């Protein structure tokens, strides 16, 4: 669980008010402003209110949360902030709102007047659905549902990507090298911009004095420039710090480049890097390059933590306000490096945190949030813990499922509450309603047990190969959230060794979206995949189909 109380501002709120929070963000040059959204989709702000960044209609600071009625019920999907600060907010309906500092037209309304209240940004965005926003110091980016990027605001270094250095007063589509391409993620440094495409390519533009664009030099780029050094890698996530950048690939590999004054690249030194460098790679750690800051771990213990070769990185974190970097591994380990409470940590340091957000709450300067934070609460977990305890408990169960000669003990009431399929099944006119044992033969025991356990715990713990079967069950039972979890497990668990097995299973279960994901992974890593045992054990017809399809995608071109 994320503890919002780790940010000092939120100690101003009572426990009841904190329990209502669903999303929150702490921002500002001194982390003195906050915005939060309740479970009822009401938006509140409080804090210092520099440059009218609270959007309350006045310039008064407030220690008591004020409601932004204009945004009530809008359902926030993305939020970002600048250094002024200015604030951008995208809603579930695709609308874009902005307020706060506007000295460089970073609000996108064509003026330089301060935005004392949220305004709808619409110029050049008609019929566009905004899905993600990102702010630099004084410039803004917005990503649309069809993969287009729009930019506006301060442009002294080309960070708007227009090909010039004049400020951009309204949203302008970023084209040039991005023309005809589909962008799936955006990020901003102080005066630089980054975009990652659906095929894993990364582009950068704007200020490059520290090499934060990763293009091999330190010259500013007035239009998007591809990071040639990452060619052949498929990037899933990008993150930008004040003047450094991070990238995470589909194989869980982490690359860093740009400014390194505080060790924020994690390379073991403080030298800037003009091109991406692979970090947290065992082969690159030399003698003496072991994290020791504030730690009493022995070298052996540190080695054990770092030698988990299968423990891939699944999340990276950085923020344009700080020189701090963080990442999280698949097993839940959280590392931090860079400027951490005044110390320069030059190698990733294993923490006891459970999420990257805690790194920024406790060690970043200022202690802002690197993303819009989503909350969970103890009062919900109490019920979940009780249900978890009673799953497959013969003492309290009133129903058994039989699979492969094994029983799974459950409770009809829980199944009816949690699943529409069982709610329909346990009707008086269904024969199953009268049974004490129900035979299941269309799914395997591990898959069905995992499904029932999900109904009790909201969690799924399966290897990616079995998650394919669970995806098939979730589709049959119309369990959409479970389907998303299964796809998440499979995508995070895909490797060169199991990629073709997962592709085969996706085809067998007619999981089209997953089949496309696995196919793209196989194509992106074609040489390695074709050398695995799984590739040579497949059905001949499927092999022919794969070769034909890969050929049509240009996989065999020189």
From TrEMBL:
<feature type="region of interest" description="Disordered">
    <location>
        <begin position="285"/>
        <end position="305"/>
    </location>
</feature>
<dbReference type="InterPro" id="IPR009091">
    <property type="entry name" value="RCC1/BLIP-II"/>
</dbReference>
<keyword id="KW-0677">Repeat</keyword>
<dbReference type="InterPro" id="IPR051625">
    <property type="entry name" value="Signaling_Regulatory_Domain"/>
</dbReference>
<feature type="repeat" description="RCC1">
    <location>
        <begin position="147"/>
        <end position="199"/>
    </location>
</feature>
<feature type="repeat" description="RCC1">
    <location>
        <begin position="200"/>
        <end position="251"/>
    </location>
</feature>
<feature type="repeat" description="RCC1">
    <location>
        <begin position="94"/>
        <end position="146"/>
    </location>
</feature>
<dbReference type="Pfam" id="PF25390">
    <property type="entry name" value="WD40_RLD"/>
</dbReference>
<dbReference type="InterPro" id="IPR000408">
    <property type="entry name" value="Reg_chr_condens"/>
</dbReference>
<dbReference type="InterPro" id="IPR058923">
    <property type="entry name" value="RCC1-like_dom"/>
</dbReference>
<dbReference type="InterPro" id="IPR011333">
    <property type="entry name" value="SKP1/BTB/POZ_sf"/>
</dbReference>
<feature type="domain" description="BTB">
    <location>
        <begin position="397"/>
        <end position="464"/>
    </location>
</feature>
<feature type="repeat" description="RCC1">
    <location>
        <begin position="252"/>
        <end position="304"/>
    </location>
</feature>
<dbReference type="Pfam" id="PF00651">
    <property type="entry name" value="BTB"/>
</dbReference>
<dbReference type="InterPro" id="IPR047996">
    <property type="entry name" value="RCBTB1_BTB_POZ"/>
</dbReference>
<dbReference type="InterPro" id="IPR000210">
    <property type="entry name" value="BTB/POZ_dom"/>
</dbReference>
<protein>
    <submittedName>
        <fullName>RCC1 and BTB domain-containing protein 1-like isoform X6</fullName>
    </submittedName>
</protein>
<feature type="repeat" description="RCC1">
    <location>
        <begin position="41"/>
        <end position="92"/>
    </location>
</feature>
């Amino acid at each position: 669980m994320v503890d919002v109380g780790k940010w000092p501002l939120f100690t101003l709120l009572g426990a009841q008010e904190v329990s209502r929070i669903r999303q929150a963000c702490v921002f500002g040059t001194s982390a003195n402003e906050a915005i939060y959204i309740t479970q009822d989709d009401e938006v509140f702000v409080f804090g210092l209110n520099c440059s009218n960044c609270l959007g309350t209609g006045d310039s008064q600071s407030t220690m008591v949360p004020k409601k932004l009625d204009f945004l009530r019920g809008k359902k926030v999907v993305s939020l970002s902030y600048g250094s002024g600060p200015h604030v951008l907010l995208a809603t579930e309906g695709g609308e874009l709102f902005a307020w706060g500092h506007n000295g460089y037209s970073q609000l996108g309304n064509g003026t330089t007047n301060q935005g004392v209240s949220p305004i709808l940004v619409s110029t050049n965005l008609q019929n566009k659905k905004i899905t993600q926003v990102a702010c630099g110091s004084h410039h803004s980016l917005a990503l649309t549902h069809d993969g287009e990027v729009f930019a506006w605001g301060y442009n002294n270094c080309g960070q708007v990507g227009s090909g010039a250095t004049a400020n951009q007063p309204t949203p302008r589509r970023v084209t040039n090298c991005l023309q005809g391409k589909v962008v799936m993620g955006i990020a901003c440094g102080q005066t630089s911009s980054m975009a990652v495409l659906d095929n894993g390519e990364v582009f950068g533009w704007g200020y490059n004095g520290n090499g934060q664009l990763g293009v091999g030099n330190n010259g500013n780029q007035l239009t998007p420039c591809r990071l040639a050094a990452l060619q052949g890698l498929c990037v899933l996530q990008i993150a930008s710090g004040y003047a450094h950048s991070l990238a995470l690939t589909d194989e869980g590999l982490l690359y860093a480049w740009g400014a390194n004054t505080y060790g924020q690249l994690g390379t073991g030194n403080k030298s800037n890097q003009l091109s991406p460098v692979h970090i947290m790679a065992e082969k690159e750690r030399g003698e003496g390059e072991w994290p020791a800051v504030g730690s009493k771990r022995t070298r052996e213990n540190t080695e054990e933590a770092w030698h988990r070769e299968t423990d891939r990185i699944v999340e990276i974190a950085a923020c344009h306000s700080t020189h701090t970097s963080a990442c999280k591994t698949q097993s839940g380990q959280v590392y931090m490096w860079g400027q951490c409470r005044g110390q320069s940590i030059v190698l990733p340091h294993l923490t006891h945190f459970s999420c990257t957000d805690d790194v920024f709450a406790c060690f970043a300067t200022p202690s802002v949030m690197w993303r819009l934070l989503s909350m969970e609460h103890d009062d919900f977990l109490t019920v979940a813990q009780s249900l978890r305890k009673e799953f497959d408990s013969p003492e309290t169960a009133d129903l058994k499922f039989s699979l492969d000669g094994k029983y799974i003990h459950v409770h009809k009431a829980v199944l009816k509450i949690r699943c529409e399929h069982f709610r329909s099944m346990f009707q008086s006119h269904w024969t199953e309603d009268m049974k004490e044992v129900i035979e299941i033969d269309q799914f395997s025991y591990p898959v069905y047990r995992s499904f029932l356990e999900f109904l009790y715990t909201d969690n799924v713990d399966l290897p990616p190969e079995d998650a394919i079967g669970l995806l098939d069950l979730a589709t049959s039972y119309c369990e959409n959230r479970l389907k998303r979890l299964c796809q998440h497990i499979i995508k995070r668990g895909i490797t060169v060794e199991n990629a073709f097995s997962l592709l085969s299973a996706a085809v067998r279960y007619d999981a089209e979206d997953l089949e496309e994901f696995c196919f793209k992974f196989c194509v992106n890593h074609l040489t390695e995949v074709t050398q695995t045992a799984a590739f040579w054990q497949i059905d001949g017809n499927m092999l022919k189909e794969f070769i034909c399809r890969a050929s049509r995608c240009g996989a065999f071109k020189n």
